[in-house]
Write a structure and sequence with these properties.
Number of domains: 1
Structural class: alpha/beta
Strand order of the largest sheet: 3-2-1-4-5-8-7-6
Mean pLDDT: 92
Shape: globular
Number of helices: 5
Oligomer: single chain
Number of strands: 8
Length: 179
Amino acid sequence: MKVIAGQFRGRPLVTLEGKTTRPTSDKVKGAIFSMIGPFFDGGRVLDLFSGSGGLGIEAVSRGMSEAVLVERDHRAQKVIQANIKMTKAENQFKLFKMDAKRAMAQLVGPFDLVLIDPPYAKEEIVKTIIALEELHLLSKNVMIVCETDKAVLLPEEISAFGIWKQKSYGISKVTVYVR
């Protein structure tokens, strides 16, 4: 695993051994950013259920100004901290060491890009998007990127958002919601 493009391009990312997290493959990560960008001119990214932090780091590498990474697993938090240190741009990252629900209650928006890859996809994604909207954490032009198993069927609409793009890559499916 490595950073694919931008400022940190080619730098290796540490991943967590075992089944605690499911790191997004470089192929899927590249496809996600091709769908939504591929580069940005500033903005804030929220990477919920962050795992190794690879998606949030990739977003900053591609031009986002700041990434907020949320992860409750202690071993994954150490991996995220090592990956943030590798960027040598630690001031562009903030790690919330808690579950997503607790973190959302403490976050200050707005966020321009939200990355959601939860362990129990469908139920968690719907609840999370509704909560983010109710807490006024999303910018007017936010893109919400959800990564799931390809068998998961997400609703066409969640709150004020509808599916903009959706594509399967091997066993993964990427769904992008916009207002």
